[in-house]
Amino acid sequence: MKGKTDKLEGIIPPLVTPLDQKRRVDKDSLENLIGHVIKGGVSGIFMLGSCGEGSSLTAGQKREAVQCALKAAGGRIPVLVGVLETSAEKIIEEIKTYEAMGAEYFVAAAPYYLAPEGQEGILRHYRLLADNTRGRLLVYNIPPYVHCDIFPETMKRLLEIPEVIAVKDSTGDWSLCQKALFLNPDGGILSGNEDLCGAAMLFGAKGCVPCLANAYPEFYVEMYRYARERNVEKVMEYQKAIMKMKKVLDYTRNWVAAVKYLCVRKNLIQPYTTYGITPASPDEKEKIEKYLLENERLFLQSKSQV
Fold first, then answer.
1. Residue ranges of the chain whose pLDDT lies below 50
2. Closest to 69 (Cα-Cα) out of 38, 23, 107
3. Tell me, what DSSP letter sits at residue 139?
4. Residue 7 in contact with residue 38, Cβ under 8 Å?
5. Which of 202, 211, 114, 204 is nearest to 152 (CA)?
6. How far apart are CA 255 and CA 262, in angstroms?
7. At what angle are helices 217-228 and 232-245 packed, to 10 degrees?
8. Maximum distance among all Cα pairs of the chain, rounded to whole angstroms
9. CA 162/CA 158 separation, integer angstroms
10. DSSP per residue, 199-213
11. What is the secondary structure of 167-196 as a DSSP string?
12. Angle (nearest 5°) at CA 180 between 174 and 182
């Protein structure tokens, strides 16, 4: 167990999971996508999260995606694996499956459906996970999906667990995020909300987990560099561009379909989604293209993309 020496920093895209027309994992496309973001300078990839449709994929699909990602990454960057299950028992079972494949980083949310017993229940949950893994854990705070919030004080206590190396905060609540950053000045907080990532990194977040980095990794990597340089003016410029570009996610019935379409138009993946999500329709694609015609230049301004 390597513990706190394995701190994560930088831009870590929550990758989409490429599928083919029969809803099988498209391994060639996944390799293309991973190569694309690595070339863009990312510090890691997050598989099977919300953007990766991790809660919808079958066990077999998830195993294939993780195995492919580990091979494609080839040890060049960490591969974070989402274990989004309803109980600690199921999460531990998944972790052991992925550990056998060579995975070392696991992103786990609080139990959902049967809610945890308050903040102490959340602490017990992660301590149990820590006791049952050889790898490193990232706490995933995403209240809209799991219906409970991990308070900043609890984040601090969680980061005291040797196996817990980071908290991905996706609340979208700046007040709570700021408090978590102030309570953990030595690091450990990753921003999971693109509306807040610029401010969060300036206030001490060690990085960002942005869905649009699937298609535009260089943009976010450069923003991260400006944040490390404490260049407030440039970070503000990039954050304004993010807020404008994020509107493309509103043009499809589900935002994951929009992220996938952004990758499709770069010839990285095929357009297919899991059955619960409708791919971008011709009309939606037309609206996205019209919007990008006016606004994509904002995301193509980084030196790496010119």
1. 1-5, 304-306
2. 38
3. E
4. no
5. 204
6. 11
7. 150
8. 51
9. 9
10. HHHHTT--EE--GGG
11. EEE----HHHHHHHHHH-TT--EEE--TTT
12. 100
| Sheet order of strands, 189-191 included | 10-11, 207-208, 189-191, 164-169, 136-141, 105-109, 79-82, 45-47
- How much is the pLDDT for 303? 54
Residue 101, CB-side half-sphere exposure with 13 Å CA sphere: 21
pLDDT score for 241 = 95
**What pLDDT was estimated at residue 115?**
87
Tokens found for residue 77: 């960057």
Query: 12 with 45: CB under 8 angstroms?
Result: yes
Q: How far is CA 282 from the centre of its chain?
A: 28
Q: For the purposes of burial, counting CB atoms within 10 Å of the CB of 63, is it exposed (0-12), middle (13-18) or buried (19 or more)?
A: middle
Rounded distance between C-alpha atoms, residue 179 and residue 58, angstroms: 37
78-125 pLDDT tens trace: 999 999 999 999 999 999 999 999 999 999 999 988 889 999 999 999
Q: In this structure, which amino acid lies at residue 45? A: I
Q: What's the per-residue H, E or C state across 211-271?
A: HHHHCCHHHHHHHHHHHHCCCHHHHHHHHHHHHHHHHHHHCCCCHHHHHHHHHHCCCCCCC
* Cα(306)–Cα(301) distance, integer angstroms: 7
Structure tokens that stand for 124 in this block: 């017990």
Structure tokens at 224: 């991260």
pLDDT at residue 299, rounded to an integer? 86
Which residues, 6+ apart, have CB-to-CB distance to 160 below 8 Å?
A: none
| pTM of the complete model beyond 0.85 | yes
What gap in Å lies between CA 32 and CA 72, rounded to an integer?
9
